[in-house]
Amino acid sequence: MAELTKELSQVKGQEPAVPDEAVPGKDEPSKDVRVHPNPAPAGKRPLDVPTGTPTVIVDDLHIVYRVYGAASDNEKGNAVNALTRLLKRQGRPQMKEVHAVKGVSFVSYHGDAIGVVGRNGSGKSTLLRAIAGLLPPHEGAVYTDGQPSLLGVNAALMRELTGERNIVLGCYAMGMSPSEVREKYQEIVDFSGIDEFVQLPMSTYSSGMGARLRFAISSAKTHDVLLIDEALATGDREFRKKSEERIKQIRESAGTVFLVAHDLRVIEETCNRVIWLHKGKIKMDGDPKEVLAAYNKG
Ligand SMILES: Nc1ncnc2c1ncn2[C@@H]1O[C@H](COP(=O)(O)OP(=O)(O)OP(=O)(O)O)[C@@H](O)[C@H]1O
């Protein structure tokens, strides 16, 4: 918290609220968390310069999943264990906890496009869902300026409805007025490239088509904080190019984008900053080239 408080004070041009002596590890480079430099380093393109206003503050965040009825290895379903439980009048096997995010802290700014990388199970999707407000912190906190919108491969469109109905409902769900929906409708269809499939139920779409439509709907509106979980990975080359352009536009309109993708090339081309998660903790946070080089090594 001390580090974040200091960082925010600098953003506001004030003296740090926490005295330097109180900051543990002062004068030492931080091992895990490097808060984004502000202002951005000289020589960067205007697009790469965040405006300095924080959009998301993640403060020592811990997320724990509780899995009820999860059996440990020696509790697993055989007849003897079941009978023992019955005789001892025990209920189902005990609850298991999965500590998915372990003390993550960082600040994002207007104009940031942040790639989140890490191995399977390192906590990327969990972190995005927590920023979107879909998972309560076990400890710590997430503060956001504006409404974060999570665009996931599983975003809530209705498979039994046509693409057309999903576009209309999706736009209303994002708070657009009927006239805005009419105005944006054709642009969404064109951007998604699903053509005449728009008249068919989404259950007939390939996973790539569904992902493209979701991205087209979600990005039709300017978001303060847009969280994208792998949606770009399923598109083809041409669609990826269009999506990258769209993400740049969102950044230009002073929003913040978080992008989880296993395709590191997409991250390198789209983001001005990368956070590397490892076993639920931040291993590195900074310039995409540096972080991705370290990530590829190891
Ligand atoms: N609903 C859930 N219930 C219990 N545990 C979960 C749940 N969702 C995720 N986990 C666990 O939390 C940890 C982090 O998962 P998460 O999906 O956030 O990782 P990830 O980095 O996004 O993985 P991937 O790259 O495979 O998508 C994993 O150990 C996973 O098993």
From TrEMBL:
Keywords of the record: ATP-binding, Nucleotide-binding, Transport
Residues covered by region (Disordered): 1-51
Classification via CDD domains: ABC_KpsT_Wzt (cd03220)
MF GO annotations: ATP binding
Keyword Glycosyltransferase: no
Feature: compositional bias, Basic and acidic residues: 23-35
Record keyword Translocase present: no
Residue span(s) of domain ABC transporter: 81-296
One Pfam family here: ABC_tran
SMART domains to which the protein is assigned, alphabetical: AAA
Family to which this protein belongs: Belongs to the ABC transporter superfamily.
Protein name from the UniProt record: ABC transporter ATP-binding protein
Organism listed in the record: Nonomuraea guangzhouensis
Native organism taxonomy: Bacteria, Bacillati, Actinomycetota, Actinomycetes, Streptosporangiales
